[in-house]
Amino acid sequence: MNKEEKVVVRKEMLKEGLQRLGLGKGDLVMVHSSLSSFGYVEGGADTVIDALMEVVGKEGTILMPTFNPKVKIFDPLTTPSAVGKITEVFRKREGVLRSLHPTHPYASWGKWAEYLIKDHEETHGIDSPLGKLARKGGYVLMLGAPAGSNTSIHIAETIERVPCMGFGKRVCWIRTPEGEIIQRNSVLHREKGCPLFGEVIEEYLKEKGKIKEMRIGKSRVRLMKSWDVIEAKRYMIYHGYKGIPPCSKCKIKPHSQEYYDNLPCTGETEGG
């Protein structure tokens, strides 16, 4: 009986693949990731992070989501990331900074890290960390992550104020680095999935020749400009896509505050 050959991914393989995709020194890149998508990575999450840092260099910048939207009181120092092993290891790295946002904090390293994470108020706005990265010509790198995790799509929705999102209407709490607990607001996300999202956005970008794709190990890796993602979604908001109607025809509504109040809490920062 033949067993499936074990796929081993090493740092040099990662670096070579990322460079072939077009990522290089000085680039700004938002990384959505799935460690398990590669198969076996020698050295685990640290190897992926090391490869990214060496490819973009100190003159470049890496941004990652470190979201934990279920926690009741967000603490930037202790609240773990709930969006994957790579993001959790990354946020703990020396020199990595984290934005002070109650549900969607980002972590960043490199030349523009402080600029990106500073004054993160509107969840997915143009002045959010990812919005700033997009404005500076940054990339989105999908390391085996599903297309629906591409947060740049939400920037377009925020710019256009789509009615299925409640912007600034979710009441949340954060613990500041000084230990003070204060109220902050976040977004009420929609009650069910948007049909103009995820794979639909990537299909549109492929048609326009604005996305590159390859395999690294078992992982399906894609690279695209963040601003191209934003513009793709903005187009669909007004025009729809391949039989899917535009947002003006959509009846999806935001969740209520009560929905979030009743979410099971991850509890990591409670009572601390």
Global morphology: globular
Structural class: alpha/beta
Strand content: 15-25%
- On the 0 to 100 scale, the average pLDDT is 94
> In angstroms, what separates the terminal alpha carbons?
54 Å
Break the fold down into its secondary structure elements and pairings.
Layout: E1 8-9, H1 11-21, E2 28-33, E3 40-41, H2 45-56, E4 61-65, E5 73-74, H3 85-91, E6 97-98, E7 106-110, H4 113-117, H5 129-135, E8 139-143, H6 152-159, E9 166-175, E10 181-188, H7 199-207, E11 211-216, E12 219-225, H8 226-239, H9 257-261
Parallel strand pairs: 1-3, 2-4, 2-8, 5-9
Antiparallel strand pairs: 4-7, 6-7, 8-12, 9-10, 11-12
Short description, anyone?
By secondary structure, the protein is of the alpha/beta class. It has 9 helices and 12 strands.
Description:
This protein has 272 residues and is α/β, with parallel strands linked by helices. Helix content is 29%, strand content 22%. Helix 1 crosses helix 2, helix 6 (152-159) crosses helix 8 (226-239) and helix 7 packs across helix 8 (226-239). The radius of gyration is 19 Å and the shape is globular. The model has no long low-confidence stretch (mean pLDDT 94).
Keywords:
single chain; 12 strands; 3-stranded mixed sheet; globular; 272 residues; 9 helices; 7-stranded mixed sheet; alpha/beta
